[in-house]
Design goal:
The protein is of the alpha/beta class. Helices cover 38% and strands 24% of the residues. The strands form four sheets. The protein has a six-stranded mixed beta sheet, with helices on one face. α7 packs across α8.
């Protein structure tokens, strides 16, 4: 059960909710957020009471925190707070199915049936992650246009294409437009949840300072496994999550041949061989865009791929 805490003194929403395991969560940030946190903490320190609203019934009441002591509650980390996910899907049944699944996973989910509605909402506030179908109503490529809009609003917002269109051309177009992942609708709910979790972990890792122990250096190649970033000749290589783990798999053991099944397993994806081939081609192209002489990913015909040390 979650409690939304109010201030006795200010008679206003403090913006904090807690559950019975003692974890306090808030969406507030900055100085104002800190003031709200202090207000709530002072209430418990004073008499262990707080005014609350049941998140489901919306009924107000009084709850007493027995045997209050400083440190009884802990503030949730950023990773523990509820993430906001937007799903842009024109088929109502499919959209509601994904919304229900992700809500059960602890995310705050909003759904949109077309590009115009989503873009209007995103002008006010961006989600933490967007899941986009390509065909949206009468717009055959509406999802591509929406992806471009989102990228103009944020360079770091995680974007996943979730679509029935599985051609290589659509996949390449989606990733080139700035999507972080491209999934087809035959994916399982568990797999989708895992991909979303991986993207959130990557975003959280990017906010952390670099950790020297998390670096893998292979000549001009540097992989930061904590922040999930790749550098070639000290230039950032913009890889998707899948591409990062495939490259990581190859670079961990230079000269060692990795089969397509091994790359698929290391990247936590379940696709056919042609899709693995497409991913490797895109990785190569991204390196070549920075260094025309790049030739470190070697194809071993009939076996797989290997990283050739410079």
């Amino acid at each position: 059960m979650y409690l939304i805490v109010y201030s006795f003194v200010q008679q206003t929403l403090v913006g904090v909710c807690c559950n019975w395991d003692g974890v306090i969560k808030t969406t507030a940030s900055g100085n104002k957020g800190e003031q709200k946190r202090q207000t709530a903490e002072q209430l418990w320190q004073k008499n262990g009471n707080c005014l609350f609203a049941n998140a489901k019934t919306k009924k107000l009441g009084i709850v007493r925190i027995e045997n209050y002591r400083p440190g009884l509650f802990k503030w949730a980390s950023k990773a523990e707070r509820m993430k906001k996910i937007a799903i842009i899907e024109d088929e109502t049944a499919i959209r509601e199915n994904y919304m229900e699944m992700l809500s059960a996973q602890g995310y705050q989910v909003s759904g949109f049936c077309d590009r115009a509605t989503a873009e209007h909402a995103f002008q006010d506030a961006l989600p933490d992650l967007a899941i986009v179908d390509i065909g949206l109503g009468h717009e055959i490529d509406g999802g591509f246009l929406l992806c471009q809009t989102l990228r103009s609003l944020s360079k770091t917002l995680p974007i996943i294409f979730l679509t029935a269109r599985d051609s290589e051309i659509d996949t390449v177009c989606g990733l080139r437009m700035g999507a972080d992942d491209y999934l087809t609708k035959d994916i399982s709910m568990a797999h989708l949840a895992a991909r979303i979790g991986a993207l959130f972990r990557r975003m959280e890792a990017l906010e952390q300072p670099a950790d020297e122990t998390a670096l893998i250096n292979r000549g001009p190649l540097t992989l930061d496994t904590k922040r999930m970033q790749v550098f070639w000749q000290q230039q950032l290589v913009d890889l998707t999550v899948t591409e990062f783990w495939m490259l990581h798999s190859l670079a961990q053991r230079p000269g060692h041949v990795k089969s397509r099944n091994e790359l698929m397993s290391d990247a936590k994806i379940y696709v056919d061989d042609s899709t693995i081939t497409s991913h490797v081609k895109r990785i190569r192209k991204k390196f070549i865009a920075l260094d025309a002489g790049f030739d470190c990913i070697d194809t071993v015909y009939g076996m797989g791929y290997r990283w050739e040390q410079v």
